[in-house]
């Protein structure tokens, strides 16, 4: 029996070529195969990309939320008039401030303050993109700070498990101190002030005191070194917890006795109203302030939310924000709208409800 | 294959190219998929791990809830006391730090429960070891440095659920486990308590000096020191003062951040070994563990102890206002103090003499009385002349000066028949009645006459502890009214200058006749000390009974003889040796009593024989405490203060030891000898469980902090919010008078310590609660030896980290200066009259003494726990018990003693103290410092819990988590809406409140890592 190979050899020996039909069939089959392969590869790589991006984002979010859970569950509160827990939604809508858009940026960030699509703070009709009362957590997410117990190694007093000030804050910045890559990333920081001074010049939580609203935790000028009290306001790169976090939101609740039912009703205290951009907790849960509301209560329950970009989303946003832009908004979309188009398509929102265990005396 | 390629080889190689390409691509795709799958699996595994870790955390929180439930059930009601298992015999080493809860209203030896996992499932066997597979370490080497053998472990409890796939529907499967342990914080010394006295600026603490005196009145936090007395750290020094301020040290580990004497961090290692000994701070609910209910505030309602106490506590009604203006305005009557007060925070104070009739009882004490009489008939023509002379000495028994004023003595019971016997003739020459001749009573004035050239420092005020003398005025005839007396006179005048009276008689007697006197009856004098301005009785003294006198030794009638006399002195230490009746230690012999019986007086040195006092006797007797040489005796070394009067709001029940109670031994309240006596129908030992002092007297208006909290005179009182969330104000506190003054509903007591603690190392720092480490100091009056007083600006200071126990907790700074062994000015011979022991007003214990005392207390508490369980109340703690009776050298049990009494005695702290003075440490002195912070139970606890996630299929543990919570009992009931906090247990309306008592709150929480365990 002659095999195909022997027939080809015979054909060659005979000096005959392929017929046109043979060639066409061969080319067609090859093209078909190649097309299938390209399609498969495209789908597979797309699936890979999406899946790995999602998994990466989920892992990031889990890590962030776990940290928040551990920290918030162990949050300290003493009824001494000091502020033990504070949350601020930056009102800056121009991104010109330093809270989240740190120094050294090459261009003004174009993340819009407010646009449809993010986790809504409050169900409200105020969906405008220009004001700070919109549905998103501002341009930089929430700046959350409070006191919790450090989970230390207890090798030294500096690493002992003691109460420390912590802060969570998104900063858009280069990922290195001396950036060669001019791209900026959205980095969520978890600042943890050292328990106590380790030198006369390097103060700690114990020296700074337990009032997170005190000036020592938010000085006017940025001179913060890692683990300084000032790092609560000006986090350093040492404090990066996760990257590609483009929104971070916090809601606080307390249980309020319902005069009608006699039961206890979970009542949101932050944001208390559309324009409630800051919460300083210096009253125990359930205690009204001079204005007769709960806007200064230490929360009993906190909802936290993070929106995390996939790796691809991070790449796209970085390219969109680069100078010069490597990606431009299509016709018909404003720069802000397109920023959110990219973010929405390449990010996920994760939430968790956390019960704070500490009760005030 | 040959060495040469076949000419057809290329064609052969091209065969299968497409297939190869296809296979390669397929392989690549497969590889991609496998990689993706692997990546996904890794991510899923990571997510699974995190999920199981989260499940473990939930189980740990479940364990925390179970622990909290058990704690609430067992220790929520008031009538519960707590102690640890450490002292129990046979306890498993891994369970020695378990916390037990006993009923406070019975004497059952066994506890209601041991608070560790297993309690919810039927109970904990304290002796049995937990199998390793079922044990989990909750307090291990990284916490307290323990080894595996003696780490604190708890028994795992299974979490089972039915319906797990693969398991019989009827069965259940373990999906997790938990364990918990409740640690008793109250048995640990609160060593990181800040001193906030400087922030108390309202009247009467509106000066630095007055604020600083708060530190000598009550313990303001334990002082951690090594057995040599060297502080591990001092929260009050400059290194730590700011670090501990405002309760910033709230967690145990933070203590490691404090600075030691070398300004280095204390560190974790020293801390770990003291995990069961130290705490940052503890808080106690001011409740009665025996009867239940919140304690009543004696500052708000002092009449809870009767009107006499209310009058005594109202010091402002009888204390002179210490301002220069007030003093000047008072001149010339009574004398203004000299030197004058320099400011309102003067170290000195003066009190007005008050008799106790609808006012406080502040009285001088008759410490010496001498009356002598004789007869003279120089010639036959002259009448019989009777001369009566007297001398008296009055003692200010207080550590503060009195405002001088005129007094009077009324002497009754003078001999009704005195026979003058003609010894030569053997006949009665004359008879007379002293009562008839001199009055019944004989009234003699005790004026306070300022000398010329006044002011003179030691005459302008009746100085603290000082004796002043009076004698009869020279050459006067007796009057029925008030016979003149001479102030500041110690020596009797001559016969001719006595109170002279002429009596009829046998005229044949001349100067050469020998006369003798006869007293046919015994004589008992009654002396009434009277405030001259209103005739108010200060005290009545009944003299020893003097013997009849058959006859005196005859002497010539012309002689200035005074052959008979009556003399008594207030009994004191030097007399006790002879009689066995100890000064200040015998029931009924309080020198401040209204009625002073003969038991308290001594006819010394001659006994009850009137002939022994015929020769005039001087008051001056250097070996006695209560006498004074008026010529040279102006030194403070002669002063003997014994009792204290309040000069600021009372803050400790221990200071009630100075409250005089008629018929009882001095220092009755707070000392073992007064514990069963009653005042206002309440056992005095029970006071310490029923009452407290907020310091909120009618004259005090506390300031408010920036946070709106009341700043109380007792800086360790932690204010709480009202149920409506508002902070209580002064009006709220005063409103509690309607509910029995239970202002304790609004407070927790900081620095709380459980008396059932057995650790020497915990008791020792607590005993150092009052100390004066730099930069703090105890400032005292630098008294002039020439006068016994000084200007207020003349001060000296003591800085010491030693334990101080004040007898004069509000006034020691006025009398502290003293010289040992010298009771008389100018004497080169040391005297047994240890006046300096009385003056000091504070006993400082050395490190060795503190260690010895703490060790003995720990031993005795251990004995109590092993014998019949913990102390159920402070009353039980301070009352004598046979259990603590000592044994003499022959093994015979002595009298019942209280723990502190026994510990003081067994530690021989008073062995070298000659007198029952302020240096003689008593239980009352210790309670003065510690009463506000001592409790028979704990209200602060530490819960550690553990949870693990178990794979239901394999049974493997796949996640572990530990957490820790500090929980605090608060005054509000579990169901605060049903019963008000002031409701007593038997009036509770809610079943929940009956069962769970007062609410526990989680005041801190943290997740632990292995590095924390």
Give the secondary structure arrangement, pairings included:
The complex is a heterodimer of chains A (about 350) and B (about 1000).
Chain A: H1 4-14, H2 20-73, E1 85-88, E2 143-149, E3 163-173, E4 185-192, H3 205-208, E5 240-243, E6 245-257, E7 264-270, E8 278-281, E9 301-309, H4 311-321, H5 335-345, E10 347-355
Antiparallel strand pairs in A: 1-2, 1-8, 2-3, 3-4, 4-5, 6-7, 6-9, 9-10
Helix pairs in contact in A: 4-5
Chain B: H1 9-14, H2 17-75, E1 80-84, E2 99-103, E3 113-114, E4 135-139, H3 141-144, E5 152-155, E6 157-162, E7 172-184, E8 189-190, H4 208-212, H5 214-217, H6 241-244, H7 268-272, E9 278-279, E10 283-285, E11 296-297, H8 307-313, H9 324-330, E12 350-352, E13 354-355, E14 361-362, E15 365-376, E16 384-395, E17 401-403, E18 407-412, E19 418-422, E20 427-432, H10 434-438, E21 442-446, H11 457-460, E22 467-472, E23 482-483, E24 485-487, E25 499-503, E26 514-518, E27 523-531, E28 536-546, E29 555-556, E30 564-570, H12 573-579, E31 595-596, E32 601-602, E33 678-679, E34 682-683, H13 687-690, E35 691-692, E36 717-719, H14 730-735, E37 747-750, E38 753-754, H15 760-767, E39 778-781, E40 795-798, E41 803-806, H16 812-815, H17 835-839, E42 842-845, H18 847-868, H19 874-878, H20 899-906, H21 923-930, E43 934-935, E44 940-950, E45 957-973, H22 991-996, E46 998-1008
Parallel strand pairs in B: 8-9, 11-35, 12-17, 21-23, 28-31, 38-43
Antiparallel strand pairs in B: 1-2, 2-3, 4-5, 6-7, 7-44, 10-37, 13-14, 15-16, 15-30, 16-22, 16-25, 18-21, 18-27, 19-20, 19-26, 22-24, 26-29, 27-28, 30-32, 33-34, 36-37, 39-40, 41-42, 44-45, 45-46
Helix pairs in contact in B: 15-18, 18-20
């Amino acid at each position: 029996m002659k095999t195909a190979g022997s027939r080809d050899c015979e054909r060659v020996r005979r000096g005959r070529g392929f017929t046109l039909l043979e060639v066409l069939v061969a080319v067609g089959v090859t093209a078909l195969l190649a097309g299938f392969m390209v399609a498969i590869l495209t789908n597979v790589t797309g699936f890979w990309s999406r899946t790995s991006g999602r998994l990466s984002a989920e892992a990031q979010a889990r890590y962030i939320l776990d940290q928040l859970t551990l920290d918030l569950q162990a949050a300290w509160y003493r009824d001494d008039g000091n502020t033990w827990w504070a949350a601020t939604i930056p009102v800056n809508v121009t991104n010109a401030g330093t809270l989240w858009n740190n120094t050294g940026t090459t261009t003004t960030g174009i993340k819009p303050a407010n646009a449809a699509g993010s986790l809504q703070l409050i169900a409200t009709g105020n969906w405008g993109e220009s004001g700070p009362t919109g549905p998103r957590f501002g341009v930089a997410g929430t700046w959350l700070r409070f006191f919790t117990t450090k989970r230390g190694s207890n090798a030294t007093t500096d690493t002992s498990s003691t109460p420390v000030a912590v802060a969570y804050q998104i900063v858009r910045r280069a990922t290195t101190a001396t950036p060669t890559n001019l791209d900026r990333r959205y980095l969520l920081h978890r600042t943890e002030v050292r328990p106590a001074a380790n030198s006369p010049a390097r103060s700690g939580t114990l020296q700074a005191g337990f009032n997170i609203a005190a000036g020592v935790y938010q000085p006017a000028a940025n001179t913060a070194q890692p683990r300084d009290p000032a790092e609560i306001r000006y986090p350093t790169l040492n404090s990066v917890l996760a990257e590609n976090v483009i929104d971070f939101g916090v809601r606080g609740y307390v249980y309020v006795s319902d005069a009608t039912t006699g039961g206890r009703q979970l009542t949101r205290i932050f944001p208390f109203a559309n324009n409630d951009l800051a919460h300083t907790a210096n009253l125990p849960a359930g205690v009204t302030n001079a204005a007769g509301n709960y806007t200064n209560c230490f929360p009993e329950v906190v909802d936290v939310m993070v929106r995390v970009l996939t790796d691809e989303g991070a790449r796209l946003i970085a390219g969109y924000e680069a100078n010069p832009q490597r990606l431009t908004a299509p016709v018909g979309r404003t720069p802000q709208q397109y920023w959110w188009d990219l973010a929405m398509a390449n990010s996920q929102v994760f939430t968790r409800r956390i019960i704070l265990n500490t009760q005030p005396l | 294959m040959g060495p040469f390629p076949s000419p057809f080889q290329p064609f052969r190689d091209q065969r299968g190219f497409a297939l190869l390409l296809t296979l390669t691509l397929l392989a690549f795709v497969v590889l991609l998929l496998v990689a993706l799958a692997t990546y996904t699996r890794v991510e899923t595994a990571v997510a699974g791990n995190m999920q199981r870790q989260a499940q473990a955390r939930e189980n740990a929180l479940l364990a925390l809830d179970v622990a909290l439930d058990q704690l609430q059930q067992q220790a929520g009601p008031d009538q519960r006391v707590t102690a640890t298992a450490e002292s129990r015999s046979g306890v498993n080493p891994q369970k020695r730090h378990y916390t037990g809860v006993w009923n406070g209203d019975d004497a059952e030896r066994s506890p209601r429960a041991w608070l560790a996992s297993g309690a919810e499932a039927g109970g904990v066997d304290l002796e049995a070891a937990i199998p390793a597979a079922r044990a989990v370490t909750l307090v291990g080497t990284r916490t307290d440095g323990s080894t595996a053998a003696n780490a604190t472990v708890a028994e795992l409890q299974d979490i089972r659920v039915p319906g797990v796939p693969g398991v019989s529907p009827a069965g259940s499967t373990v999906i997790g486990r938990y364990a918990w342990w409740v640690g008793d914080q109250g048995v640990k010394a609160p060593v990181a308590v800040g001193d906030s006295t400087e922030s108390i600026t309202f009247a009467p603490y509106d000066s630095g000096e007055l604020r600083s005196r708060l530190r000598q009145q009550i313990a303001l936090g334990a002082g951690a020191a090594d057995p040599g007395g060297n502080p591990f750290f001092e929260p009050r020094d400059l290194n730590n003062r700011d670090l501990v301020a405002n309760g910033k040290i709230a967690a145990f580990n933070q203590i490691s951040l404090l600075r030691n004497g070398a300004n280095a961090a204390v560190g974790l290692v020293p801390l770990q070994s003291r995990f069961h000994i130290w705490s940052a701070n503890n808080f106690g609910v001011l409740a009665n563990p025996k009867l239940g209910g919140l304690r009543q505030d004696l500052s708000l309602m002092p009449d809870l102890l009767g009107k006499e106490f209310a009058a005594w506590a109202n010091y402002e009604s009888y204390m002179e206002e210490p301002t220069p203006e007030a003093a000047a305005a008072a001149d010339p009557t009574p004398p203004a103090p000299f030197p004058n007060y320099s400011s309102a925070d003067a170290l000195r104070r003066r009190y007005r003499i008050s008799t106790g009739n609808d006012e406080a009882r502040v009285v001088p004490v008759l410490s010496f009385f001498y009356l002598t009489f004789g007869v003279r008939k120089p010639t036959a023509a002259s009448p019989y002349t009777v001369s009566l002379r007297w001398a008296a000495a009055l003692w200010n028994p207080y550590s503060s000066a009195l405002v001088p004023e005129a007094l009077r003595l009324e002497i009754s019971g003078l001999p009704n028949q005195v026979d003058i016997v003609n010894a030569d003739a053997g006949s009665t020459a004359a008879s007379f009645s002293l009562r008839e001749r001199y009055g019944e009573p004989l009234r003699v004035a005790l004026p306070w006459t300022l000398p010329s050239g006044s002011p003179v420092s030691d005459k302008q005020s009746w100085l603290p502890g000082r004796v002043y003398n009076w004698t009869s005025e020279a050459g006067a005839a007796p009057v029925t009214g008030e016979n003149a007396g001479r102030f500041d006179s110690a020596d009797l005048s001559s016969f001719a200058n006595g109170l002279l009276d002429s009596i009829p008689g046998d005229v044949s007697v001349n100067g050469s006749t020998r006369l003798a006197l006869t007293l046919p009856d015994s004589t008992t004098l009654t002396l009434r000390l009277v405030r001259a301005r209103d005739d108010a009785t200060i005290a009545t003294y009944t003299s020893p009974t003097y013997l009849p006198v058959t006859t005196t030794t005859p002497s010539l009638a012309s002689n200035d003889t005074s052959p008979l006399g009556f003399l008594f002195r207030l009994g004191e230490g030097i007399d006790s040796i002879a009689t066995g009746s100890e000064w200040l230690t015998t029931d009924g012999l309080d020198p401040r009593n209204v009625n002073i019986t003969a038991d308290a007086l001594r006819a010394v040195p001659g006994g009850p024989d009137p002939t022994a006092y015929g020769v005039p006797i001087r008051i001056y007797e250097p070996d006695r405490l209560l006498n004074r040489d008026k010529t040279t005796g102006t030194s403070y070394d002669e002063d003997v203060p014994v009792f204290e009067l309040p000069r600021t709001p009372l803050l400790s029940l221990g200071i009630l030891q100075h409250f005089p109670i008629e018929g009882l031994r001095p220092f009755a309240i707070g000392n073992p000898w007064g514990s069963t006596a009653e005042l206002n129908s309440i056992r005095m030992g029970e006071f310490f469980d029923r009452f407290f002092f907020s310091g909120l007297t009618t004259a005090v208006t506390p300031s408010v902090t920036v946070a709106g909290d009341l700043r109380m005179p007792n800086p360790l009182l932690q204010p709480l919010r009202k149920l409506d969330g508002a902070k209580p104000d002064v009006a709220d506190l005063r409103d509690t008078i309607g509910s029995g003054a239970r202002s304790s509903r609004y407070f927790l007591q900081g620095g709380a310590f459980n008396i059932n603690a057995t650790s020497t190392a915990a008791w020792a720092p607590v005993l150092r609660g009052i100390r004066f480490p730099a930069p703090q100091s105890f400032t005292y009056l630098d008294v002039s030896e020439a006068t016994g007083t000084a200007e207020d600006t003349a001060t000296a200071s003591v800085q010491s980290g030693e334990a101080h126990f004040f007898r004069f907790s509000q006034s020691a700074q006025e009398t502290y200066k003293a010289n040992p062994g010298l009771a008389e000015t100018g004497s080169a011979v040391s005297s047994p009259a240890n006046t300096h022991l009385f003056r000091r007003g504070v006993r400082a214990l050395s490190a060795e003494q503190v260690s010895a005392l703490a060790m003995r207390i720990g031993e005795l508490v251990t004995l109590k726990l092993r014998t019949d369980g913990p102390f159920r109340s402070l009353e039980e703690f301070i009352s004598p018990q046979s259990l603590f009776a000592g044994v003499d050298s022959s093994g015979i049990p002595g009298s019942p003693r209280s723990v502190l009494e026994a510990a003081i005695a067994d530690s021989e702290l008073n062995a070298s103290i000659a007198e029952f003075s302020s240096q003689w440490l008593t239980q009352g002195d210790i309670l003065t410092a510690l009463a506000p912070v001592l409790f028979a139970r704990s209200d602060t606890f530490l819960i550690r819990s553990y949870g693990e996630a178990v794979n239901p299929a394999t049974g493997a543990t796949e996640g572990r988590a530990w957490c820790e919570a500090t929980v605090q009992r608060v005054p509000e009931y579990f169901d605060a809406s049903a019963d008000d906090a002031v409701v007593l247990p038997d009036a509770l309306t809610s079943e929940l409140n009956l069962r769970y008592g007062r609410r526990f709150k989680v005041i801190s929480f943290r997740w632990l890592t292995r590095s924390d365990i």
